[in-house]
Design brief:
This protein has 475 residues and is an alpha+beta fold. It has two domains: 273 residues, no CATH class; 162 residues, no CATH class. Helix content is 47%, strand content 14%. The chain contains 19 helices and 13 strands. Strands 8-9-10-11-13-12 form a six-stranded antiparallel beta sheet, sandwiched between helices. Strands 2-3-5 form a three-stranded antiparallel beta sheet. A two-stranded antiparallel sheet has the order 1-4. α6 crosses α19, α7 runs parallel beside α17 and α9 runs antiparallel to α10. The radius of gyration is 22 Å and the shape is globular.
């Protein structure tokens, strides 16, 4: 996949480069042979519903049924909302011992396009709620499984699904080898933008896919704060206010019963000032040109439903200069009980620091905050970013086999680049090797995990029928 690195680099050899790193990679093969990554312990005594519902008491109770309603749309949406379940399953698999900063939820829908600070459309990971350092292969396995499950959701045959999975894993392995041959700065500056993707497709004479990517990019560039302002606000007494569309969007004035607007505004501004202190000085200066207007709770995603997510409306020069920020609650990563606690006391900071480490370019308003006393009187951590800033993602409902295969190539490159920034890329490259042993093992794992995912999905359906969980559909 074409990238914006300065020049092609010579291929690294396992016996060259950092000898200590190469030795670590070779030793890791003894600890966890590459072929061992095909194994999956689908233990019959595992209760997927109990694992999924653990922690529901910390979510907004009225929103939890929406979460399960969204998860039960299909085995793929179930998979998207079941990061905690897969983390527990991965803990029982062989470990290479080669760590990197993990996304923690690296399924294919958590990759996509967004605007870089230099205002070009880049392709990267875009969800880091579960980020933590851990075995590099955990991210690879979740990515591979997502391609297998998405392919089944689309009705692709065995060969088509296998091709997409292998494309993603092979791209990861070969791209990591390329990164191992680069110097540190070249790795750090590497990124993929949409222009690169279109050029690559055209060079391969794949005009149809190039046209699709170009059309998606054009649409993404219209998705910004101005569009959010037009869609999400209306005028009340001459002032813009966020619309009320419960339970999906609920303004703060409707939630904070008994508190006046002045009291609410004072509390929001106190939190906002704390958030600003986590930004670079130039970005704090930029935010000083905006004033607070309104705040509302918004339901987002699949697995995140039930956590407290807010949208914050700010205005700059006038009503034609809006800025929407998303303030999203985060708590303990699903990986922490398995891999150890984060070094950051604030989980919002854990997310932000992980995102900055893994992404080639991050939102200029990315920051964090701790609300010491929320509406329920409990302290909660949040991270902040723009709500819409050219954000786009793959349409898994319409993608075709060739498109899924090409998308796997892009995701594999991107994940390798993210891991190369924090992990020992020479050791990982040595471990992966030049053959497709690792690729085929992970593809076998993905197939087995897709089978397990379908069984777990059926179990959740049964739990809904039995009343073990409450489900609200269509939201």
């Amino acid at each position: 996949m074409s990238t914006s690195t300065a020049a092609a680099q010579p291929e690294v050899e396992e016996e060259k480069g950092d000898a200590t790193s190469a030795e670590r990679g070779k030793a890791a093969r003894e600890k966890a042979p590459r072929a061992s990554h095909s194994t999956l312990d689908g233990s019959s005594d595992r209760d997927p519903v109990a694992l999924l519902t653990d922690g529901d008491e910390s979510r907004v109770a009225e929103l939890v049924p929406i979460r399960y309603g969204r998860m039960l749309v299909s085995p793929f949406t179930f998979f998207r909302g079941a990061a905690s379940l897969m983390a527990n399953d991965l803990a029982a698999t062989p470990r290479s011992g080669l760590n990197a900063q993990l996304c923690g939820d690296a399924h294919l829908s958590n990759f996509g396009g967004f605007a870089s600070p230099s205002r070009d459309l880049v392709f990267d990971l875009n969800d880091f709620d579960e980020t933590l350092a851990g075995p590099f292969e955990w991210d690879v396995k979740r990515l591979a499984a997502s391609f297998e499950i998405a392919g089944r959701d689309r009705g692709f045959d065995d060969r088509e699904r296998r091709a997409a999975v292998l494309s993603a894993v092979r791209s990861y392995r070969e791209s990591m080898r390329d990164f191992a041959a680069m110097n540190n700065l070249d790795v750090w500056y590497s990124r993929m933008n949409i222009t690169d993707m279109i050029s690559k497709l055209r060079s391969q004479q794949d005009k149809k896919q190039a046209k699709n990517v170009k059309r998606t990019a054009a649409k993404a560039r219209t998705k910004d704060s101005m569009k959010a302002f037009a869609k999400l606000t209306h005028e009340v007494d001459g002032e813009p206010r966020i619309i009320s569309d419960p339970p999906l969007i609920v303004p703060i004035a409707e939630l904070a019963e008994g508190r006046g607007r002045d009291e609410i505004t004072a509390a929001v501004l106190e939190l906002f000032n704390g958030y600003q202190r986590t930004l670079q000085p130039d970005r704090r200066k930029l935010l000083e040109g905006f004033r607070y207007v309104d705040l509302a709770r918004k339901v987002v995603g699949v697995g995140s439903v039930g956590t407290r997510c807010w949208i914050l409306l700010l205005l700059g020069r006038d009503d034609g200069d809006p800025l929407f920020l998303q303030v999203k609650e985060t708590s303990t990563s699903v990986l922490e009980p398995l891999l150890g606690r984060s070094p950051f006391r604030n989980h919002g900071q854990r997310v932000v620091e992980g995102q900055r480490l893994m992404q080639a370019a991050s939102d200029i308003f990315l920051g964090w905050i701790r609300n010491k006393e929320g509406l329920d009187g409990k302290p909660r951590d949040f991270y902040v970013r723009q709500l819409w800033d050219w954000k786009t993602s793959v349409d898994t409902d319409t993608i075709l086999p060739r498109g899924l295969e090409l998308y796997g190539e892009a995701c594999g490159w991107t994940l390798a680049r993210a891991h190369a920034r924090s992990g020992d890329r020479v050791a990982i490259t040595t471990y992966l090797g030049k053959s497709d042993v690792f690729d085929r093992a992970v593809a076998d794992f993905a197939e087995a995990y897709a089978d397990l995912n379908e069984r777990d999905y059926a179990t959740l359906i049964e739990a809904a029928r039995d009343g073990r969980i409450e489900v609200k559909e269509g939201l």
